[in-house]
Amino acid sequence: MSFVKKAVKKVFKTVKRHVSKVVKVVKKVAKSKVFKVVAGAALVYFGGAALMSLAGGGTASAGIGSAWAGAQSAGSAVMAGNFSGAASALGSGFTGGAAAGAGATFSTGQALTAGVLEGGATAATTGAAAAGSAVPSIATSGELAAQGASQFGVAASTAPTTQALTGLQTGINATNAAANSALASGAANAGTSAASKGLMSSMWNGLGEAGKAATITSGVQMAGSMLQGKAQQEASEEERKRRSYWGVDGEGNTAATAGEINFGLMDPVNFNGAQTQAPPTWQTSIDDLINRQKNVVWSNG
Amino acid sequence: MINQNQMQGNEQAIDPEQEPLQQGEELATPEEQQQLEALYDMGIDIIHSEGQVGDQIANMVLQAQDVSMGIGSAASALLIAIEKKAGMVPDEIKLQLAQELIAELTGLAVEAGALAEDEVNDGFIDAVASNAYSSYITTKESMGELNPQELEASVKEAEELMGTSARGGQPQQPQQPQQPASPASGGLMSMAGG
């Protein structure tokens, strides 16, 4: 029996686990029959893409990147054994990974394949250039990690682990940065979206272009509404703080004249008698009117 | 008098949760089971270790834009780390080990609130496994440990097993005569002889 078949058909007992609060979830994954099927499909699909890219003079990494973009385009259901769409997309797009050469990376493959599939050759080239220039090799990162491990005095027994993990983390960070660069140019948008999904995740793929646009638009609108709501809330808070009721403002500060009624214009300190007019009566004479007018003119003058 | 270890051994031997074997499946030998548990414990030690390594694993999961990608990358990193510490891991054990590690990481992600319990479905498992395999191959190549010949043999075996191929778009003819692979040659999850 071959080793792949043996691996798929071998059945292990449940390992002794640490106490977990989410035993149900852990068991669900650990006992999933789907896992081995997907693992076999991933080997066929991504392994095949890697080999195709290698055969074309590219790297396995670029081929896998192309495969992600191809899977996104095809909306494939690999678990169900439906490779036709994905394989067709892969066949038309994988050459991007090979064409990018031996130095091509995961993101380069994605960008190029996305470009090929969407017909955006110029954008793809831009995306690939951005990705290629921004991604250092993980081997280099591993070397840096090894230096870091020695500088931090990591024990010899744990150094290989630390080196591998640090190198991988650095590489992943670099790949993410490169993917973001490619995203900015709009070339690797589809490929990167696909990379976050599984092969049989067809919800996004099934939306169609109009559905995707609507989803993105509604997302942007939702974010806009949230921002607008936040601004309104802040304005309301400021307004509340400015309010004053009976000498106590919105923040609970008590004024010096607390308890006294503030009559505004009738403030005796700023009282201006010149502006006070005598109540008109039927007894007012023409002289009274002249004198009143003079007072007003003088007070204003 | 029966001690605790014997009781655990009996419980494990009976294992009421063990599902009956399907046609074509075979139960792992006690040695293989023991090896799996030892490697799994090694992975658990890495995940839960205090300091840099444990933090890096947690960050991979919790700071990833997509949790399935984070768990896939973390599982790949753990697998490579275990290979570095333990030496060669047989392929049939490696696949089960990957599944157990992904289960553990998924549980931790749910506990940490990065993932809802009902989000863990077949689609999620598919996404994690695909990301883990992609990350594994990419990292192996970057480390200069990817062997194209072994990858070719493994893909060919998988194509026969699945009855289909992504390379030609047509199903492969099953059971073509081929050279028996050596234990050191690649398998499902290890194409680089790690």
Keywords, separated by commas or semicolons:
A: mainly alpha, 3 strands, elongated, B: 194 residues, mainly alpha, 2 domains, 7 helices
Spans where pLDDT lies below 50 across 5 or more residues of chain A: 75-83, 120-161, 178-196, 200-204, 214-226
Average pLDDT reading of chain B? 77
Gap between N and C termini of chain B: 44 Å
Distance between the termini of chain A: 114 Å
Mean pLDDT of chain A: 59
Unreliable stretches of chain B: 1-14, 170-194
Major β-sheet strand ordering of chain A: 2-3
Number of strands of chain A: 3
Oligomer: heterodimer
Gyration radius from CA atoms of chain B, angstroms: 18 Å
Which band does the percent of strand residues of chain A land in?
Answer: under 5%
Could you say which overall geometry of chain B the principal axes of the C-alpha atoms support? globular
What's the helix-strand series of chain B?
HEHHHHHH
Structural class of chain A: mainly alpha
Number of helices of chain B: 7
Secondary-structure element string of chain A: HEHHHHHHHHHHHEEH
How many domain modules of chain B? 2
Cα Rg of chain A: 37 Å
Give a brief rundown of this model:
Chain A has 301 residues and is mostly helical. Chain A has a domain at 3-199. Chain A contains 13 helices and 3 strands.
Commentary on this structure:
The complex is a heterodimer of chains A (301) and B (194). Chain A is an all-alpha fold and 301 residues long. Chain A contains 13 helices and three strands. Chain A has helices at residues 3-9, 23-30, 34-55, 60-74, 84-93, 95-99, 106-118, 121-134, 138-151, 159-185, 189-195, 208-242, 286-300, and strands at 10-11, 244-245, 248-249. Chain A has a two-stranded antiparallel sheet. In chain A, strand 2 and strand 3 (248-249) form a beta hairpin. Mean pLDDT of chain A is 59; it is low at 75-83, 120-161, 178-196, 200-204 and 214-226. Chain B is an all-alpha fold and 194 residues long. Chain B has two domains: 29-146, no CATH class; 147-178, no CATH class. Helix content of chain B is 61%, strand content 1%. Chain B has helices at residues 4-14, 30-48, 52-62, 67-86, 91-111, 122-142, 148-162, and one strand at residues 26-27. The chains are: A mainly alpha (301), B mainly alpha (194). At the A-B interface, helix 1, strand 1, helix 2, helix 3 and helix 4 of A face strand 1, helix 2, helix 3, helix 4 and helix 5 of B.
